[in-house]
Q: What sequence folds into this?
């Protein structure tokens, strides 16, 4: 919102399913608002283009956060299954648990290599919309898959708010929505593939 303008108002913050981190969500209303030329972003009718230039960086940031959350959830779960006993031994001794840990760790390592490549491209100013969209789509889907698998390995404890994995499971869902829903990411990736 722009300070000192008549006709603008905001409703109270809207509650969300996930923990909101530091991001407020509110409805903004503008009625007969007149902006001075100095308030225009990128010139008249060019604000959206300015915003579009920053979307690859935003999507890469979401990918980095998603991968970091995946790594954290994996470590929390690895510790949990090494301590939790069932059938006279720890869950970590069960082959099905070991295989699930191996799958998650492999996916996370592959994701880290791809995201690192995207970070390098971003630093070299070579990250395009398609690559950023791939990173965001893939990493946020991975975060949701890892969250699901980690809750599964926690069993009933995975649904108790006292366990951080339950909160991480709820928080993971929004990642596939903000910054552009993953369905939009696929559309952007496909457009680039078809047009090149």
A:
């Amino acid at each position: 919102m722009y300070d000192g303008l008549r006709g603008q108002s905001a409703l109270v913050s809207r509650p969300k399913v996930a923990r909101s981190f530091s991001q407020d969500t509110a409805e903004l209303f503008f009625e007969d608002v007149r902006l001075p030329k100095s308030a225009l972003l990128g010139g008249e009718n060019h604000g959206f283009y300015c915003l579009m230039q920053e979307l690859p960086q935003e999507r890469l940031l979401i990918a980095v956060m998603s991968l970091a959350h995946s790594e954290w959830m994996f470590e929390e779960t690895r510790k949990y299954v090494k301590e939790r006993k069932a059938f006279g031994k720890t869950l970590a001794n069960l082959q099905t648990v070991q295989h699930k840990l191996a799958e998650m760790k492999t996916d996370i390592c592959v994701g880290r290599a791809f995201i690192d490549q995207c970070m390098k491209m971003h630093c070299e100013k070579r990250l395009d919309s398609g690559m950023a969209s791939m990173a965001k789509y893939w990493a946020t889907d991975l975060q949701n898959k890892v969250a699901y698998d980690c809750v599964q390995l926690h069993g009933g404890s995975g649904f108790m708010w006292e366990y951080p994995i339950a909160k991480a499971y709820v928080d993971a869902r929004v990642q596939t929505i903000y910054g552009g829903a993953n369905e939009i990411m696929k559309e952007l990736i496909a457009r680039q593939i078809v047009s090149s």
